[in-house]
Design a protein that fits this description.
Helix content: under 10%
Distance between the termini: 48 Å
Strand content: over 45%
Largest sheet: 4 strands, antiparallel
Strand order of the largest sheet: 1-2-3-4
């Protein structure tokens, strides 16, 4: 059996999260510099990179059928990104009192996600009730 491996350095800071988006042939990466970077996983072409958070990105999750990515950070925010809208941040979720460490979509209802924090709480949120007064662009 032959093993193929591709290794490339994407940032000068630690990488804490990576998720495949198979339908787009992307790998999405979150790092300690607060940037989200998107690469084509076949060619390693950089699709986009942008400052998403003011602190470490701890977790990324990809919606199973929509064009959404959620990111969680040490800045205590969770952000909803829409790649069909040029990676616009369409909603910021607040409420954790410490680092937002992990995210998961509900497998029975992908409009609902849970976030885990070092504030010793889990928050369950509706991801797609987008309100214009709670939208964001990049780092707040």
């Amino acid at each position: 059996m032959q093993v193929r491996e591709k290794t490339f350095e994407i940032a000068n800071s630690r990488v804490r999260s990576a998720r495949f988006v198979a339908r787009k042939e992307w790998i999405v990466i979150g790092a300690d510099d607060g940037f989200i970077r998107v690469y084509n996983y076949n060619t390693m072409e950089n699709i986009i990179e942008f400052k998403a958070h003011s602190d470490f990105i701890r977790s990324l999750i990809v919606h199973p059928s929509q064009s959404y990515l959620l990111s969680a950070s040490d800045d205590k925010h969770i952000k909803l990104w829409d790649w069909e809208k040029g990676w616009e941040c369409t909603k910021t979720f607040e409420g954790h009192e410490h680092y937002a460490m992990q995210l998961a979509f509900n497998p029975r209802d992908a409009n609902v996600f849970a976030s885990a924090s070092l504030d010793r709480t889990i928050k369950v949120s509706l991801a797609f009730i987008v309100q214009s007064n709670n939208a964001c662009t990049g780092v707040n």
